[in-house]
Amino acid sequence: MKKIYIILILCLTILGCSKDGQETTIDTSREVNSADNDCYTEVNLIAGQNYNAGIVSYAIINNELVVTYTSTGGWEIDATHLFVGDCEAIPTNRSGNPKIGRFPYKSTEASGTTEVIWNIPISEFPVCGCISAHAELSLDTGNGTQNETGWAEGEQFLGNSWAMFYDYCVTECVIAY
Fold first, then answer.
1. How far apart are CA 165 and CA 117, in angstroms?
2. In whole angstroms, what separates CA 27 from the centre of its chain?
3. Which parts of the chain register pLDDT below 70?
4. Domain membership of residue 167 as a residue range
5. Interatomic CA distance for residues 127 and 122, integer angstroms
6. Residue 64 within a domain
């Protein structure tokens, strides 16, 4: 068993292969453009798989990655869990579902919160990688409160949940600042 772990670690770190044995690629459609205002990129914040509850955006400002959760349509942000970094380092269980409790950035918010901002120095993460942004969301329906899990829209994890992540590449923005 120890040999398997050593081979897996070598594969992931030296050869750059992904968990399914194929080479990892970065989706350049989400590469930020230094000509854009603050190299701004946004994706939808999806609640309960079916509701557009706002956006999650990132921008490079003063050598920091600024990740902003913004809820709309009456949705409130109760908590956030954020991972930014090497795609292979996202904490997941054996089934491939993310372990949000192990995400490095997390918060609990006061009632009524509609915006949460994370400022992360660019020195803390690779120039290209993945962002997985989770939120606990609530909506006053008039007949009670609807509580939902929310994810920044992107690619689904390999597990059996609807959890998502998306690629980023800030090369052009880092050079610009």
1. 18
2. 14
3. 1-38, 171-177
4. 28-176
5. 8
6. yes
